[in-house]
Amino acid sequence: MSAFATEELMGERTRGLITATSHPFLAKELDAATREIQNYCGWHIAPEESKTITRLSRFPEEIWIPAMQITAVTAVQAEGIEWSDLTGVEFDPQTGWTNIRARRIHLTYTAGFEEVPEDLVALTLQMAARALGVSLGILREQTLSASLTFTASADDRSRFESVLMPYKIGYLP
Predict the structure, then answer these.
(1) Pair 98, 89: CB distance under 8 Å
(2) Given pLDDT bands bounded at 50, 70 and 90, which one contains residue 141?
(3) Mean pLDDT taken over the chain
(4) What does the pLDDT look like over 51-97, one tens digit per residue?
(5) Hey, what's the torsion of the CAs at 170, 71, 108, 59, to 10 degrees?
(6) Ramachandran region, residue 80 (left: φ > 0; alpha: ψ -120 to 50; beta: rest)
(7) How far apart are CA 58 and CA 148, in angstroms?
(8) Is the dihedral of CA 8, 10, 14, 18 positive or negative?
């Protein structure tokens, strides 16, 4: 797995405030932020790659591919029989539902964005910066009559969820 953002990009976006030399755990925090995004969304998101799912259930069930941005189903073995003709395989590229019903399945598919979407790159950088304890904006300012709190590296859960919702498995716009 590679992080959705690089150490170099963090240095550029923060104008040198956060670099690999000034924060030795930067790479680990970028990886952790990427994993948190992937775990929340339920799939790898980027880059595009081939994966295989294997399932065994007691009863035949509809087969669901745990991904979005699906571009192809490249191999199917259902009930121990290898499918040589995949032209009859239908799948929804956004939800992963297929027209395959089986008890035992081995299915290989290709899914994912070729490049990490920009909003996920930005969120990864924000999450890593916050984890490193770096404030990229005013965190809190207060006068007698007013209070102001904001930061460019906010760990705001509602922002996290609103950015990730279009990439979460099961989301239908």
Answers:
(1) yes
(2) low
(3) 89
(4) 999 999 999 999 999 999 999 999 999 999 999 999 999 999 999 99
(5) 40
(6) left
(7) 57
(8) negative
